Amino acid sequence: MVRPYLPLKALRAFEASARHLSFTRAAEELHVTQAAVSHQVKLLETQLKVPLFTRLPRGLMLTQEGELLLPVLESAFDQISHTLERVGESHYREVLNVGVVGTFAVGWLLPRLEDFQRQYPFVDLRLSTHNNRADIAAEGLDFAIRFGTGAWHATAAQPLLPASLSVMCIPAIAARLNTPDDVLGETLLRSYRADEWTEWLLAAGLPRSFPMAKSIVFDSSIAMVEAALQGVGVALAPPLMFPRQLSSGALVQPFNTTVSLGGYWLTRLQTRPETHAMACFREWLLTAINA
User: Fold this and answer.
1) What is the pTM of this model?
2) What is the pLDDT of residues 166-217, one digit of tens each?
3) Residue 223: partners with Cβ closer than 8 Å, 6 or more residues away
4) H or E stretch including 245?
5) 97: which strand partners?
6) What is the pLDDT of residues 146-180, one digit of tens each?
7) Treating both helix axes as pointing N-terminal to C-terminal, what angle do 8-20 and 64-87 enclose, rounded to 10 degrees?
8) Less packed terminus of the chain by CB within 10 Å, N or C?
């Protein structure tokens, strides 16, 4: 497309002046004189044949035309700046947006990110954490790592890691737990999935009818395990994601019984074509998991 002449210096001068509503402050930002900024804005107004500012005794006020032009320029300059950052140092940097359930992020991914960065320096990785409720389309994510059974509407899902749940608590509480039904005398820490403790108790051999203990519900396994570390109660969480707490002895697993209600999955929209950065991240993730 053939574009008309774009007076970039004048557009920059106008955009800075419009943000500050001051030629003087715009000049300071652009490292030029106030007269130079005023001159460039006047040239732009002459080219457009409309005034962009109303000159006031103290400062400036945008005209309707100026109010129309400012957000367009702000967006365009932001996109240019962002693209220049990605291109940086003569090689293209590809942005990759990944949403990760917090437990997997802290327990598995973060300790290994240095390796990913070393292998794929061109990928500009943007991580956000969630509590297992991710809207890939609305949040603009390339991938979402989440816990479940792999069944999400309009989503392609690849299994990553199993995540069997086990009872975990501090040693002082574990000393009171001689048999599985003893947990019913403690505060049960659980996620928003109400069936987790029921399934574990059944797997541990308790009859289907048992008195439900008092419980506290968390939207994050990280917060739940932190509560367990502080002696609030007994957590039901995936030991695979909390190796440091278990290896240090801060938490213990008083029973061998585990229950599997899902695992961790790498998901993306079925309609989302896989970019080079996405392929690199997926391959690295699977290689690291299977190592």
Assistant:
1) 0.67
2) 999 999 999 999 999 999 999 999 888 878 999 999 999 988 777 777 899 9
3) none
4) helix 243-247
5) 126
6) 999 988 888 999 999 999 999 999 999 999 999 99
7) 110
8) N
The DSSP bridge partners found for residue 265 are 146, 159
Q: b vs e for 254-291, b when ≥16 Cβ sit within 10 Å of the residue's Cβ?
A: bbebbbebbbbbbbbbeeeeeeebbebbbebbeeeeee
Q: Is the pLDDT of residue 5 over 90?
A: no
User: CB–CB of 213/188 below 8 Å?
Assistant: yes
Amino acid (1-letter code) at residue 20: H
DSSP β-ladder status, 188-190 and 234-237: parallel
**Nearest-angstrom CA–CA distance, 137 and 272:** 10
CA–CA distances in Å: residue 264 to residues 149, 236, 239, 248: 8, 16, 13, 25
Q: How much is the CA Rg of the chain, to the nearest whole Å?
A: 28
Task: List Cα–Cα distances, 261 to 6, 42, 216, 238, 243, in angstroms.
Answer: 59, 67, 19, 11, 20
127: three-class secondary structure by DSSP = strand
